[in-house]
Amino acid sequence: MVDRRTDPTVRVRLLEGAARLLAEEGPSALTLRRVAAEADTSTMGVYTHFGSMADLADAVVTEGFARLAARLAEVPHTDNAITDLAGLARAYLVNARQNPHLYAVMFGTAPLGMYRPQTADERKRGRYAFEEIVETCGRAVKQRRLRPADPLAIASQLWTAMHGYVMADVGGYFGEDGTEHVLVPMLVTMLSGLGADPDTALASIKTLTATDATPR
């Protein structure tokens, strides 16, 4: 029998259980007994992996950004940075659909109460996850697929739009047609405004429609 105190899957279950409680019920639900029950472990098991509820909430945010960064890092680099941006957008959407509770907590859309990030550094801790997006925007500029601009500024604009879409998508507001009828046109419009050829951008971004096969 696996010792629950050392079972590596317990930590993952604790993180995902805590994320669900925070996203669906708020910080008042994050109690020792509730979290332990979510993870099918003992209350002592919570302290085996995390020193306190505040440490657990912090680890939920960290886990959310780690999963996002890993998913974005899987997107291959090609000789067309616009295609790569489309791949990053797809990866971002898939990650949010597969980890909706983590996504809500990591971006603060779930009320965190006393567990919310307090300092400027804490609020910026997940920015490393977007390095792939910034780097790809830089390559798009170098390839002259976008007009000269600060890659960080470009990435920030694209992420802001993408985040807004993802929040509505995860909430089920667009149904099965959102990717084709909302997300693709939105990105084509944004990239065209940033200097991309509209037809080329559309051809690159059409791959996003494959995300509709991803379970919500």
Task: Please characterize this protein's 3D structure.
It is a single chain. This protein is elongated. Helix 1 packs across helix 6, helix 5 (81-98) packs parallel to helix 9 and helix 9 packs antiparallel against helix 10. With 216 residues, it is mainly α. It is 64% helix and 0% strand. The protein has helices spanning 8-25, 32-39, 43-49, 53-73, 81-98, 100-106, 120-123, 131-142, 151-170, 178-193, 198-205.
| Total helical elements | 11
Care to count the β-strands? 0
What is the general shape? elongated
Please state roughly what percent of the residues sit in beta strands, choosing from under 5%, 5-15%, 15-25%, 25-35%, 35-45% or over 45%: under 5%
What's the SSE pattern? HHHHHHHHHHH
Helix content: 55-70%
Write a concise keyword list for the protein shown above.
mainly alpha; elongated; single chain; 216 residues
